[in-house]
Amino acid sequence: MRLYTGLVHHPVYNKNREKITSAVTNLDLHDISRLSRTYGVKNFFVVTPLTDQQEFTKSLINHWKSGFGASYNVDRKEAIEVIEITASIEEAVFKIVEIEGERPVIIATCASEVKGSINFSKAKEIINSNKAVLLLFGTAWGLHDDAINSADFVLKAIKGNSDYNHLSVRAAAGIIMDRLTGHYI
Amino acid sequence: MRLYTGLVHHPVYNKNREKITSAVTNLDLHDISRLSRTYGVKNFFVVTPLTDQQEFTKSLINHWKSGFGASYNVDRKEAIEVIEITASIEEAVFKIVEIEGERPVIIATCASEVKGSINFSKAKEIINSNKAVLLLFGTAWGLHDDAINSADFVLKAIKGNSDYNHLSVRAAAGIIMDRLTGHYI
Q1: Does the CB of B42 have a partner CB in chain A at under 8 Å?
Q2: Do B182 and A160 touch (CB under 8 A)?
Q3: Which of A50, A58, A69, B55 sits between 20 and 30 A of B107, alpha carbons compared?
C-alpha cells in the first residue's frame, strides 16, 4: 500500500459556498495524523497556502517532535512525524512524485453526492493495486470544485442510517480510512 | 435498531493509570453527536458526575438548540438534540430502561486487547437482534476496569495496518459505529 492523505485548507467552501482558505486546527492535525499512522499511511499532507498557518503547523509539529511534548507523550510524536506541510495540492503531488517516482492517483472525498463518484470497493481496488494514491479531505464546508475537478476520482459520500450527513472531517477521515484499508471480523 | 452511545468521563484512567474524572470536551460532544445522528443512534449519553461539567454541557446544548447557534447552524442543532446528560453509566442504563422497558446490553470499547472480548461481527449480531444496546466509549486513557467489568461485553480493539493504536475517542467512535451499523459497497 502506498497511500497518502491530505487535509486541504484551500481551496474549500465556506458556509455560503464561497472559495476560502480555512484555518488549520490543532485537533484535526492530531486526529488525522493518528489515523494516518494507524492505517499505515506514508505521509499526511497539511495543505495551506498561508505562511502563518504553515508556521503554526510547524510549531505544533516541533512541540510534539522535539519540544516538551516529545517526552510527555511519545505516541503523539510518532503520529505527528507522518505530517508534511505543503502550500497546495499540486505541491503534495510533487512531493509524492519525488518519493514514489510516479504521479499518485488522486481520490477526493465529498460529503454530498457527486456525479460519477466511485464506490468504496472501487477505491479499495485502486489502493490494493499498489498504485500511489493521494486521498484528499476538505476542511470547512468541503473541497472546492476546483479540487474536486482536478482529482482523478471522487469517492462516494458516507451514508449512515439516516438522512443526516454532517460529520466532522476528523470522523469522516477515520471512517473512510477504515473502509478503504481496514481489516476486521 | 435500538442503539445508544455513551461517552464516559468517569470512571476512566489517566496517563498514570489512576482512576479519574476527565473534563468534558466541546469537540467530543459535537463529533460524537453528529456521528450518533448519522448512524441512527437513539440517544448519546454524556456521562459525568461533576455538576460543573454537567452545567457546561447543558449550556453547550442550549447554545446550539435554542441560542444563537440554533439559527446559525441547524445541522448542529439536529445533532446536539440526541445528547442526554447523566451522572453515571448506571443512570444512563436507567434512562434506557425507562424508554425501552428493558435493560440494554452494555458493550464497552477499549483500545487494548481484553480477554474474552467479542469481535465486530458478534457485536453487530447483537445490535441487529433488535436488543437495546448501550455502546460505551471512554475518554482520557480509556474506560476504567470498573466500567469494563460491569459491561456485558467488551468489543475487540481497532487494529489498523500498523502496531500504532492511539486514536482519539472521536475517531474511534466513528470507526466503531460505522463497522457495527454502516452499509456500503
Answers
A1: no
A2: yes
A3: B55
